[in-house]
Design goal:
Length: 500
C-alpha cells in the first residue's frame, strides 16, 4: 500500500490556511464520496437526463391509460336553423325550421390483442321541426334515443396499438439507460475534476514549500554577502530564485481558483462558494483478469442493450414501411336499437333495430415503385446498423484491452515515481548543506529544488492516473475490480429513494 501522509497533511494545512484567509466565509470541505453523492442531485447534465427520463415515463403512463375504458360526453344544448330548399319530388320550394338539443354518451375500449375498438354509445336528442310548402305547414316535435354497440377491427395489417405501446416502452427503457450512462459519465467527470483540483492544491502546497526554501536560502546568501564570504552574483541569483518562487506560487494560486470553478460547475455548486477537497492518495495494486473484464464488458454494457433496442425499433420500422401502400382492410360491426316519441317515457315503446355490417379494403394498384424503394432503403439502413454494431463491439474490446495493459504500466510508473521522489528529497537535503557551506551556487541549488518539486508532482500524478484508469475500467466493464463485484448503475428510482 502506497500512502501519502505528507500530502494529506499538506491538504489539511492548506484547508486551515484558506479558512483563515476567507474569514467568516464558510468553506466547503468535500471528499470524493461526498462529491459524487452531491453531483447525483445537483449536476446540470444529470438533472437534464433525469427530466428527459421523466418525460418518457409520463408518456408511458399516458399510453397505458389510453388502453383503459374511455368515457366521453358530447353535448349540443341548442341548435337552430332555417333554410329554403327545393323539393324535387314535388317540384316546389319549401322552408324548413329546426330547433334541437342532443347529447351522446360513449364508452370506448381499445383491444390491444387485436387492435380493435369496442364502444357502447347512447345518443339522446329532442327536436322541433317545421316545414312549409305550398301554403301547408307540417311539424314534428319528439324525443329520439339511439343505443348501439359497435366494433371496428382492422385486417391484413399490423397491430398499431401494440406496436405503439412497445415503442413507448422501449423509449422509456432507452431513457433509463441513458440516465444510468449519464451517471457513469458524471462519475468520470467529477472524479477527473476532483483529482484536478486535488493536484492543484498539492502544487500550491509544493510551491509554498519552494518559496519557504527560497526565502531560507536567500537569507543565508544575504548574511554571507554582508560578511563578505561570497560574491554578490550569488546574492543576485538567490534573489532571482526567490522572485521565481513567488511568481510560481501566484501561478499555482490562479490555477487552483480555476480548478475550483471547474469543479463547482461540474457539481452544480454556486461559483461564489469556496471549496476544498481532501482524500487519501493510495494506489493498492489491483489484480485484473482481462478475460473476465472482456466477458463483463461484452455482456453487461448498457450501450449493448441500447443497440438491441435500436435493432428492435428498426424491425418495427421495417414493418411500418412494408405496410405503407399495401393491401389492408377494415371490418365494422354495429348493433343497436332506436326509438322516438313525443313523450320521453314512451321512447322505446316501438323500437327499431339498427344493425350494420361493413367490410372495406384498400387495394394499391400502382405507386411507381415508391413502396419497393422505401423497403430497400430500410434494408440498407439495417445492414449499416449491423456493421456499426460489430465495430462498436470491437471498439469495446479494444478499449478494455488497452486499459488493462495501461494499468500494469502505471503501477511500474508509480514505483519509479516514488523512488524518484525519495532520491530527489535525499539529494536536496545533502546539497542544501553543501549550499550553506558555499560549495554550490544558487543556480545549482535551484535545479535541485526544481527536481524535488517535479518529483513530488510526478508521484502524485502517477497515483491519480492509476486510479482514473481503474475507474475507466469499471465504467467500460461495469465491474469493480477493486471490490471484486459487478456494478449496478443507480436507476432513477434508486436516486429518488436516496434523495428522500
Amino acid at each position: 500500500m502506497i500512502k501519502r501522509d505528507f500530502l494529506k497533511k499538506a491538504v489539511l494545512v492548506l484547508a486551515a490556511a484558506s479558512a483563515i484567509e476567507t474569514g467568516a466565509q464558510a468553506q466547503i470541505v468535500m471528499t470524493m464520496e461526498q462529491a459524487l453523492e452531491y453531483s447525483a442531485q445537483h449536476n446540470p447534465d444529470l438533472i437534464n437526463s433525469r427530466m428527459s427520463m421523466e418525460r418518457y415515463e409520463q408518456n408511458l403512463i399516458a399510453q397505458k391509460a389510453s388502453l383503459k375504458s374511455r368515457f366521453t360526453l358530447n353535448l349540443e344544448p341548442l341548435s337552430y336553423s332555417q333554410s329554403r330548399q327545393f323539393d324535387s319530388r314535388y317540384s316546389d320550394w319549401y322552408t324548413n325550421r329546426s330547433l334541437s338539443s342532443s347529447g351522446t354518451f360513449s364508452i370506448s375500449q381499445p383491444i390491444i390483442w387485436t387492435d380493435a375498438t369496442l364502444s357502447l354509445n347512447n345518443s339522446l336528442s329532442w327536436q322541433n321541426n317545421e316545414s312549409s310548402i305550398g301554403g301547408n305547414t307540417n311539424s314534428n316535435r319528439a324525443f329520439s334515443n339511439r343505443l348501439y354497440l359497435s366494433l371496428t377491427q382492422p385486417i391484413f395489417t399490423y397491430n398499431k396499438t401494440k406496436m405503439n405501446m412497445r415503442q413507448i416502452e422501449m423509449n422509456y427503457e432507452n431513457a433509463r439507460i441513458s440516465y444510468a450512462l449519464q451517471m457513469l459519465n458524471v462519475e468520470r467527470n467529477i472524479t477527473s475534476q476532483f483529482y484536478s483540483l486535488f493536484v492543484s492544491q498539492q502544487n500550491l502546497a509544493i510551491s509554498e514549500s519552494e518559496l519557504e526554501n527560497a526565502e531560507k536560502n536567500f537569507n543565508i546568501i544575504k548574511d554571507k554577502v554582508d560578511a563578505d564570504l561570497v560574491t554578490k552574483d550569488e546574492y543576485y541569483q538567490a534573489e532571482l530564485n526567490l522572485a521565481q518562487s513567488r511568481s510560481s506560487l501566484e501561478n499555482q494560486r490562479v490555477s487552483l481558483e480555476n480548478a475550483k470553478d471547474n469543479f463547482k460547475q461540474a457539481l452544480g455548486i454556486p461559483l461564489e462558494e469556496d471549496i476544498i477537497v481532501v482524500c487519501d492518495i493510495e494506489a493498492d495494486p489491483v489484480y485484473v483478469d482481462i478475460n473476465k473484464a472482456l466477458e463483463s464488458a461484452t455482456t453487461t454494457r448498457l450501450e449493448l442493450r441500447q443497440r438491441q433496442i435500436s435493432r428492435e425499433q428498426q424491425e418495427m420500422s421495417m414493418v411500418q414501411v412494408k405496410d405503407n401502400d399495401s393491401f389492408s382492410g377494415n371490418i365494422s360491426l354495429s348493433l343497436g336499437i332506436m326509438g322516438d316519441s313525443e313523450d320521453f317515457n314512451h321512447v322505446y315503446d316501438n323500437p327499431t333495430n339498427n344493425p350494420r355490417v361493413a367490410i372495406s379494403f384498400s387495394v394499391p394498384i400502382f405507386d411507381w415503385g415508391a413502396r419497393k424503394a422505401r423497403i430497400k432503403a430500410a434494408e440498407i439502413e439495417r445492414k449499416m446498423f449491423e456493421l456499426s454494431a460489430e465495430e462498436e463491439l470491437k471498439s469495446i474490446e479494444m478499449n478494455v484491452r488497452s486499459t488493462c495493459r495501461s494499468l500494469d504500466n502505471l503501477l511500474g510508473q508509480i514505483s519509479i515515481a516514488e523512488q524518484s521522489q525519495k532520491n530527489a528529497q535525499l539529494t536536496y537535503d545533502l546539497n542544501e548543506e553543501r549550499y550553506r557551506n558555499g560549495e554550490l551556487t544558487g543556480m545549482q541549488m535551484n535545479q535541485f529544488q526544481t527536481q524535488l518539486s517535479n518529483s513530488k508532482m510526478s508521484y502524485t500524478q502517477a497515483i491519480i492516473n492509476y486510479k482514473v484508469q481503474l475507474l475507466n475500467l469499471k465504467i467500460l466493464t461495469l465491474y469493480d475490480f477493486e471490490k471484486d463485484e459487478p456494478v449496478a448503475p443507480m436507476t432513477y428510482e434508486q436516486s429518488n429513494d436516496k434523495k428522500k
